[in-house]
Fold:
Amino acid sequence: MGGVSNATLPPLSPLPSADRPDVAARLRESLLAASFTADGLLELLGAPAYAALARSETVPALRATRGDTPLEALVRLFLLQQPVPHARVAEFLPVRACVDAGWLVPTGDDEVAAAVDVRPYGGPDGEDWFIVSDLGCAVGGAGGIGSKDEGVVLGVGGASTTLAGITVRRPVTAALDLGAGSGIQALHAAQHATRVTATDLNPRALHCTALTLALSGAPAADLREGSLFEPLPDDGTYDLIVSNPPFVISPGARLTYRDGGMGGDDLCRSLVQGAGERLNDGGFAQFLANWQHVEGEDWQDRLRSWVPRGCDAWIVQREVQDVTQYAELWLRDAGDHRGDPAEYQAHYDAWLDEFEARKVKAVGFGWITLRKTAAVEPVITVEEWSYAVEQPLGDAVAAHFERLDYLRAHDDAALLAGRFRLVTEVVQEQVGLPGAEDPEHVVLRQHRGMRRATKVDTVGAGFAGVCDGSLSAGRILDAIAQLVGEDPVSLRDRTPAQIRLLVEQGFLEPAE
Ligand SMILES: C[S@@+](CC[C@H](N)C(=O)[O-])C[C@H]1O[C@@H](n2cnc3c(N)ncnc32)[C@H](O)[C@@H]1O
Structure:
């Protein structure tokens, strides 16, 4: 299916040459000199216009760039698809070299236009990077993407930054970005991996990845064209695998950047299953994914069955949409709602037919992290957490698996001999009726990382409050038993499960 036949659309424009690193370096210097950076943009546009641009809304940015500074001209050129007079551009860009290498295109009338969208993007340590993608496709969003060409390459969207934020960032030798697109994940990985391999089914995407890396001043990656793990060498293994795959569950392949072309959630399943044998010991594989909620099946069991052998897994469902919300979201993403109403209805029908045939009631969206382990009994955690989190979460993800190792290595007796510390910025909330003397229940809440909240009983709350790393868990429980008049042996018997949960969820950390 397709909203508008590709034959009626202008073809995607040729991309700049990826073999002119000299021009990319000069262009980079000129962009930085004009403060064409994330901070520079924010200052020029102001927060509302900056945010609107990230939603693909260009009117506020057009209004904010009526002046004649180089920065305003660059915003119009590279972000708003406005031609700018050649002579003016020549004041701040190596315009002839940029035309030769294909970054700029003469449009007649002594003007030049950008061949690609070049979007300033701030790295985690204040780096000034640039993401290269197809024109008008820097984000999806309410207006729908700017092109329906199946090979269109999108820029940075919410999913891209979510994955970049949850990725474990530690020095590694080999990283793989599967489905690299504009190259944002490869760019992040290049900061902490000695070698980065970037793959994509779409050669145009690999071309954009090369341009993004060059224009951001990052080392080139090993680019490989093909589906899933196919383009990798047989013996290729990695310390980090990241993928924001084309996870959309749709009736038939259509837009390469989002529709996997396999039935249902098979592409995500294949990705997760295939990652196990590609990971080095202790290595992480991190994915965004969509999964089906099938009638008569527990969604958590479905996901557990995807986890490959020899891997711990942490799977977080962040959102669930019923099939109508899901179909509408992606019809809008493709801009179908702006076309012929009868066609829109037919497309909508096709999505619902597909879900009905698969007995799918809803679709889950979330994060899947695998860690290769030598443990005899890998641990698979599947949970739902739809509340706001504090990004970047990479350190919190790594810490989750470290706590898992601790818990696996400590039986209940060892746990009671251990000492724990309450994690910083955990607070206690008492919930109950206004005016009531005693709270109905007590909640511990984190203000960092996953920002979890968990109900505890009075023993749990008292225990957590005393944990400053000095006394063993057992000694603390003995003191609580005395205070509340409970048998210390029974308290030692029944509490380890609660301590385990508090450690697993990151409220308490081992002090040793
Ligand atoms: C959602 S985009 C992600 C782009 C980028 N990594 C990001 O995080 O923004 C998915 C990418 O996967 C690519 N892709 C689609 N099918 C694929 C497949 N079977 N194997 C590998 N890559 C694929 C698309 O071309 C697209 O570039």
The pocket of S-adenosylmethionine is lined by residues 160, 163, 178-182, 184-185, 199-202, 205, 227-228, 244-246, 256-258, 260 (CB under 6 Å). The radius of gyration is 26 Å. Confidence is low (pLDDT under 50) at residues 1-9, 140-144. The CA atoms of residues 423 and 507 lie 6 Å apart.
